[in-house]
Inverse folding.
């Protein structure tokens, strides 16, 4: 048995087909005719763009608009004059052959994205690698991997399932996917969920641990994989697959229903997004609003800070997509230190997670970064219920300064008779021990809290979730984290703030009774988790949830908390 990350729910039973990328070795040489080499690169670039466009159109027809946008994002990178310009400059000025210039430039962009601490941004590193691979294939004359003619009940095994590979996938013949890399927010996971294929990702060296034709059973929810199991395991998971499909069909009864407990206690169920286009998926999945719009993507993949008008258009689009009666919480720029955006020219830091980032950076770069973003948010608030959320807050002074800037900008807009919501709500991310400890003071200043459990867990436990040596400490079930969440909600509510959560814990069914009992007002999850979360909440009464929370708070180890929550979980 092997374990990985359960990234796309469901049970897969079938036979292994291993997919490996072809050899893309080349010789790095100094060229003599830069013009001819540039032409060769341009021909490969045009061919790659054309193929990507065709794949995107096919993906749109077979899967959906959101999934096609992944490949359209690849096209934007391929047509980015900053990236292609660097490749051409390497050819002209350094006399590199096109293959070397492509690899050098793409690796630089890949490393930039890989350095970010947000998994959504790290996924861009995989996108750039995919682009690099396809450009090299066109330069070297190597054919793309075709997954359109796989046998029935295939368990597809690969180092990574890239968007370009998925574009040719015949989903009807694929019973499951296993990869060596990727997480729940990777494009491998997103595409697997869109195609409704069970998937387990991040299984070390899985391409060498199985052989073509091996029988495999996988659980895409728990992340468990059995290779050549006995008949009893196959029978057990065949029954689990039948039950899973029945439960999935039953989720449809929660469409259009309020999010409430069994005894009628209402909460708000929103979704997290990274791009304006993602708002459509929130509406399709019956979300009640947007609990977190990460604006960082607007600042990535480009050579300079987006203009105020560009940002205004993005925020306005999201507000109009959701409609006037649904909240849209937009987080101001959360980059810096560990998040290397070249044009920002940020200093290298020994400990970037504790350094010059988020609101600290923005307040120091008011004129070129923060004021344009805040002004764009105010202008867009005339088109919907936009709310402004400030990340990485540790001091009340920071929040007061943000509110002062907003007041000054409102005066400017009034003078120009530009409409905006004069009662716009301003809140904070509670993701540091400092903001948790000072929650009562912040509740007097902020309209709302959104608990960012990913960072709150890391900072509370002093553990980097990307470091395998301390990963055992990174858990939202740790009593220190549970008590931090309970305190934040209690003090926030007592101070009159609306309290929500946008971290991964908001979608964890084991934590649902605790969050309800603590009094949380709003859950913000991935769009695809909305109906499942609504169902989980509907299974509990508030009396039951409070009893579970009271008991859970008595435990002093992570193992005790998790074991208890698993023992009382409702299905």
């Amino acid at each position: 048995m092997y374990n990985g990350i359960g990234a796309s729910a469901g049970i897969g039973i079938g036979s292994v087909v291993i997919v490996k990328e072809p050899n893309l070795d080349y010789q790095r040489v100094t060229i003599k005719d830069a013009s001819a080499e540039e032409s060769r690169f341009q021909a490969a670039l045009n061919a790659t763009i054309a193929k990507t466009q065709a794949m995107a159109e096919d993906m749109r027809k077979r899967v959906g608009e959101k999934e096609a946008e992944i490949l359209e994002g690849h096209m934007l990178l391929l047509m980015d004059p900053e990236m292609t310009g660097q490749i051409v400059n390497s050819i002209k000025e350094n006399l590199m052959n096109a293959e070397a210039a492509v690899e050098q430039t793409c690796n630089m962009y890949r490393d930039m994205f890989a350095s970010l601490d947000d998994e959504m941004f790290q996924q861009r590193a995989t996108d750039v690698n995919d682009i690099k691979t396809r450009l090299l294939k066109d330069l070297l004359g190597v054919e793309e991997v075709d997954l359109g003619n796989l046998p029935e009940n295939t368990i597809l095994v690969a180092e990574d399932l890239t968007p370009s590979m998925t574009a040719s996938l015949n989903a009807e013949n694929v019973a499951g996917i296993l990869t060596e890399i990727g997480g729940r927010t990777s494009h491998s996971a997103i595409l697997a969920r869109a195609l409704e294929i069970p998937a387990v990702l991040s299984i070390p060296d899985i391409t060498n641990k199985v052989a073509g034709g091996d029988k495999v059973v996988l659980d895409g929810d728990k992340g468990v994989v059995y290779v050549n199991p006995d008949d009893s395991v196959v029978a057990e998971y065949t029954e689990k697959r039948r039950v899973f499909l029945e439960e999935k069909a039953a989720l449809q009864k929660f469409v259009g229903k309020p999010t409430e407990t069994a005894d009628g206690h209402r909460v708000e169920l929103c979704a997290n997004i990274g791009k304006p286009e993602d708002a459509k998926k929130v509406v399709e999945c019956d979300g009640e609003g947007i609990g977190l719009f990460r604006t960082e993507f607007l600042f990535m993949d480009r050579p300079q800070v987006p203009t105020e008008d560009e940002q205004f258009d993005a925020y306005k689009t999201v507000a109009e997509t959701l409609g006037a009666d649904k909240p849209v919480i937009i987080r101001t720029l959360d980059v810096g230190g560990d998040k290397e955006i070249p044009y920002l020219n940020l200093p290298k830091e020994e400990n970037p997670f504790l350094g010059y980032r988020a609101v600290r950076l923005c307040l120091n770069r008011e004129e070129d970064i923060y004021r344009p973003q805040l002004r764009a948010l105010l202008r867009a608030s005339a088109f919907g219920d936009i709310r402004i959320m400030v990340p990485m807050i540790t001091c009340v002074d920071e929040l007061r300064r943000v509110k002062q800037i907003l007041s000054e900008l409102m005066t400017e807009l009034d003078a120009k008779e530009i409409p905006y919501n004069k009662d716009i709500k301003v809140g904070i991310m509670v993701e540091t021990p400092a903001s948790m400890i000072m929650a009562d003071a912040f509740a007097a200043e902020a309209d709302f809290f959104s608990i960012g459990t990913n960072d709150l867990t890391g900072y509370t436990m002093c553990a980097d979730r990307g470091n395998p040596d301390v990963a055992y400490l990174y858990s939202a079930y740790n009593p220190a984290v549970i008590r931090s969440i309970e305190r934040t909600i209690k003090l926030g509510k007592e101070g009159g703030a609306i309290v929500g959560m946008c971290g991964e814990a908001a979608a964890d069914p084991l934590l649902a009774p605790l969050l309800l009992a603590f009094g949380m007002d709003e859950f913000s999850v991935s769009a695809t988790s909305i109906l499942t979360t609504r169902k989980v909440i509907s299974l509990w009464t508030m009396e039951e949830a409070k009893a579970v929370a009271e008991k859970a708070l008595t435990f002093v180890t992570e193992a005790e908390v998790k074991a208890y929550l698993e023992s009382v979980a409702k299905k």
